[in-house]
Design goal:
Blueprint (H helix, E strand, L loop, with lengths): L8 H23 L3 H14 L3 E5 L5 E5 L5 E9 L2 E8 L5 E5 L6 E6 L4
Length: 116
């Protein structure tokens, strides 16, 4: 409801609030973006940076790869068999896909994308 009191100040305020609400709804509908997604993204980054991923070289010797900020290439929401997960690509030459639960708290699976 638009009010015409106070020389148009309330009109501008009410229109601006409605505009922001509509923009937020459109963003969620078109891009699937939410503030929750941003906080989950940060939670995953905070969890991964500094974590060691162990793999084995061709001789079977275990080698540790420590994840840095620049190693996290992307985080995307994926659906697998009706369940929502967060897929995280880590590394460049040595790459892994790491899958987190819907809340971004528990690593469900690690997928090594290179052969040793």
């Amino acid at each position: 409801m638009i009010s015409l009191q106070n020389e148009g100040v309330e009109v501008i305020m009410n229109i601006t609030i409605k505009y922001l609400i509509i923009c937020g709804i459109l963003c969620m509908a078109i891009f699937g973006c939410t503030n929750l997604d941003k906080s989950i993204d940060q939670k995953i980054r905070d969890d991964l940076v500094g974590k060691k991923i162990t793999y084995h070289n061709i001789a079977g010797k275990p080698i540790n790869f420590t994840v840095s900020v620049s190693d996290i290439k992307f985080i995307e929401k994926v659906e697998v068999k009706g369940e929502i997960y967060w897929k995280v690509r880590v590394g460049e030459a040595l790459m892994w896909n790491i899958y987190y639960d819907m809340d971004g708290e528990i690593i469900i699976r690690k997928e090594q994308l290179f052969v040793t």
